[in-house]
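Hi support team,

I submitted a single chain yesterday and got back a structure, but I'm not sure I'm reading the token output correctly. Could someone confirm the output below corresponds to the sequence I sent? I've pasted both exactly as they appear in my results page.

Thanks,
R.
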Amino acid sequence: AKKRPEILRSNERITTEDILQFENVSDIVSFIADRKISELSYGGLRETERFIKDRLGLELFDNQKQRELLTILVELRNIQAHNRGRINELFLKRVGDHSQTHFKFIKGETYQADFDAIIALSNNAIKIAVDMDEKIANKFRLPRSEFKSLYSKLRADREARLKRMPLPHQP
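Hi R., thanks for writing in. Yes, this is the structure output for that exact sequence:
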């Protein structure tokens, strides 16, 4: 947002009191960006996906499987934090039809992800983040850091590991 503050353009209001606490426009842009990030974090994955598509013209996910796995990761985090890991109706509604995955969720039961599931879900989240970073950098012609060659090597190594990784199996 600092390089392209226009992506924050909206009809949202900012008070004069808020504006007057800053010394320069850069601080205002940072304030608005932080506020939007906070808002998106409470709006859920769908709201974040919609923002990225509407404001950046980019797709957050390359395919439906990525969307399903990231949704499962986010919702597993939520039930661990707010429901002691117990699967409830809200979880099942948000996760939706997960028939394409090897996860088995049963209402009322406690779910504990095993190591393979954690790795698969984490790798999916990392891939989405890395891909989005590249899409944004390419679209807005943002310079890459001096670590690009290391980054490329790490990504190639990670992709090779992902291809060897089995899908999670739940008993």
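A quick pointer for reading it: The CA atoms of residues 3 and 50 lie 21 Å apart. Let us know if anything else looks off.

Best,
Support desk
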